[in-house]
Every structure is written in structure tokens, then in C-alpha cells.
């Protein structure tokens, strides 16, 4: 067996530097905590935040969560695991409820997203969030 880091640390650093100027890096600590509650809760957090379009700060936080999710999906693809990642339609005011139900059902469906793949993905997400926290602590702007 050979070790493959999938560049988690480098990808975490890239995300932290990309979002540093948007004042959202404290979200990495929340991401690490949320990872313990499961993939569907982690995935869904961007919807809650991005639905607050009138609050630019929350919207930016949602973008950070979504970018982190997308990076996780890409990392797992490299590892040979396809993580559900359906597009969620938005009517300008709300995210489409049926799309949300479909996406969470895919994350929970042990026939389509094998339990072993769910567990590995959750473990990788946890480690990825640990790296995000570490880089956040190094690059967070001092106020």
C-alpha cells in the first residue's frame, strides 16, 4: 500500500488564501465541528448562509463552505469515490426544496453512495477541515 496525501494541506492553504480577504476564515472552525455531524449537514450549511443574499458577510461564508465542499468532491474523485454533488436550483429567493431532498437522499442512500465510501469521505473531510483550521490560524487577518 502506498500513501497518497491528495494534497489536502496544499488545497486547504489555497482555499484559506483565496478567502482570506472576505473575512470568512473563522468558518473553518465551524466546518471542523460540523464534519462530526455528517456529510449532509456539512453540505447543507452553504444553503443556509447563501440564502441570506442581503447579508454579504453570510453569503461570502456560504461561498467558502461551497468551495470547500467542491474541493472535497474533487479530492474524493481522485481517490476513486464519487460523492453526490447535485446542482441546487435557486429562484432568486429560495433554493429548490425538491433539489435539496434529492441531494440529501443521495448522500444517505447506501446503495448509491456506499457506506464505506461515506465513511472514507467523512474521514477525509475531517482531515481537510483540520488543515483549513491550521492554515486559518496562520493566515487570519489581525484586526
* Main β sheet profile: none
Instruction: Please state the CA-atom Rg, rounded to the nearest Å.
Output: 15 Å
Q: Roughly how much helix do the residues carry, as a percent range? A: 55-70%
Strand content of the residues, in percent? under 5%
Number of strands: 0
Structural class: mainly alpha
Q: Quick one: overall form?
A: flat
- Average pLDDT over all residues: 93
Number of discrete domains: 1
Parts with pLDDT < 50 across at least 5 consecutive residues = none
SSE string, helix = H, strand = E? HHHHHH
Intertermini distance = 46 Å
Q: In DSSP terms, counting alpha (H) and pi (I) runs of 4 or more, how many helices?
A: 6
Walk me through what this model shows.
- The chain is built from six helices and no strands.
- It has one domain.
- The protein is mainly alpha-helical and 143 residues long.
Overview in brief:
By secondary structure, the protein is an all-alpha fold. The protein is 65% helix and 0% strand. The chain has one domain.
